[in-house]
Amino acid sequence: MAYRYGEYHDGPDPLAPPYDVRAALDEMGDAILSGSTPVHALRDLLKRGLPGAHDRKGLDDMLREVRRRRRELRESGRLDGTLEHARALLDKAIGQERAELFPDPSDDARLRESELDALPDDTASAIQELSSYEWRSAAARRTFEELRDLLRREVLDSQFRGLRDALADPDPAAMERVRQMMADLNDMLDKDARGEHTPDDFAAFMDKYGDLFPEHPRDLEELVDILARRAAATQRMLASMTPAQREELNNLINQTLDQAGLSDQMRRLGESLYARRPDLAWNTPERLSGEEPLGMGDAVSALEELADLTRLESALRQDYPGARLDDIDEAAVRRALGRSAVDDLEALRRIERELEEQGYLLRRRGKLELTPKAVRRLGETALRRVFSSLDAGRRGDHDQRDAGAAGELTGSSRPWRFGDEQPIDVVRTLVNGVRNGGLRQARGTAGSAVRLSVDDFEVAETERRSAAAVCLLVDLSYSMALRGTWAAAKQTALALQALVASKFPQDAVQIIGFSNYARVLQPDELAGLDWDMVQGTNLHHALLIAGRHLDRHPDFEPVVLVVTDGEPTAHLMRNGHSAFEWPPSAETLELTLAEVDKMTRRRATLNVFMLAADERLKEFVDEVARRNGGRVFSPSAERLGEYVVSDFLRLRRAR
Hints:
CATH architecture of the domain at 468-654: 3-Layer(aba) Sandwich
Number of strands: 14
Shape: elongated
Radius of gyration: 40 Å
CATH superfamily of the domain at 468-654: von Willebrand factor, type A domain
CATH topology of the domain at 468-654: Rossmann fold
């Protein structure tokens, strides 16, 4: 047997590794942390294309291709090509007839010339009068028949794409077959309207007339869609002409259909198609600016494709409420952009689908939301980025996961619980597995194997390691967004949350946001959190909440970190309302510094990360450092996460 190897072209590479949907979530996370909503972040991701998949197009790439093709079609030619061709053939036939009559001195020749002189200027009317004229010139007769054949082919081709070639041979039997096809088609549509149509009816119709439909529709709905789009394009062509051109071409169409005996059938078909697809732009004018005259069938094809591209462009933009990739017509993509674009679209749909199915996105009431799983992933990604920015020597200290970190062994063991960092007691774990029926015959060997479940695991108990009560105070004021530090602050909070959850599960972390008021932020709401468009930086209230958190954990080591870009401008009054004043009032500063003093009495070191170089802020944080003994940092927004995480780890190691 011979084998031949070559590049694979039939769709996407079947051996390509599966796309990691988490990378798509990370891409979305950057936009979400900057203030974008999940639905806008997903839409922007799908527009750009999949990260790392350079051979795949995004929606923007498809849009550019669609717009390029629309420009080409608009510049492809003029709509009056059939009229121009018909006039030329009519003038040619009349000229040939005059040339035949001129040498003849008889009265009959002069009478015929007077008939030709009296022909109306309108092409359709002239053709109508000449339909009963007895031509003296054989050449003129042939030219006139050529004109009649042209109109018949063009008119029918404007309705049925495959009829121009079928009618190339002027065989009466071919025309009779077209009449019968239209009668059967209308009968089938009427039967379907009564609810009596069956798939066998359509199969029988296609067996008899399938060669007249090069699109090879699979069912009646698809056939109706094909015919309706073409009929609507014909109407748009007429609507795009001048009134004189429209009247002249309409007369030619009606005259041609009457002579072919198709007027009634075509009228029935048009009414059925319009009733089934009124959503199509039936009478919307379109402008074609090319110089080349187009035949009627070619002009209708161009306008049909333009309408497809217009609808496809609207779907690809995805800028309407509730937009989804499922709204994009795959058949329209295939017609306009080819098979490879269909594969690209399916890859984008798979990402949108997988993000929901794998539990990263939740669609609730038509609105996309991040799930807790997605927020944890964003925190882990933020933490990895923080560690990757640290130098290699320090990174080894930060990401250490050895068993000794849990403390000295005591000699006893206990069942494993989620978050435990103690080393696994292998002997006790295996014994539990055997006792619980996990002993199995090893496949392919004479020995045995132990199958373990989660309940079988035990960890070796260690001496208790000190835990920390961590408070991260994040400024939510509008100035954070104006200075471009908002995304960095959220990313830092997520990274710290992920660090504590993974490396220090015994710690109690609380993230507090503050603007005119302060509030505790839950981990799940961090990613989608937006800044507050209010006046006030109420650090006083934030320190009050942080103090209550520390007091609830009196045996924990207190860690307080403050991220802000401005001095306190608000404080909490006795009645619970916020008082704002700028420049800061003496009362605001006194109350805020009083809370700093309370932190000092709790033995909580308060480190401030200053995101602005404002002189008032410098004076305030210097006073905080003097009273508390904490440190002051002035990192750039890009290095904020590195500073906060490094400082937290330094404090944990010191204790």
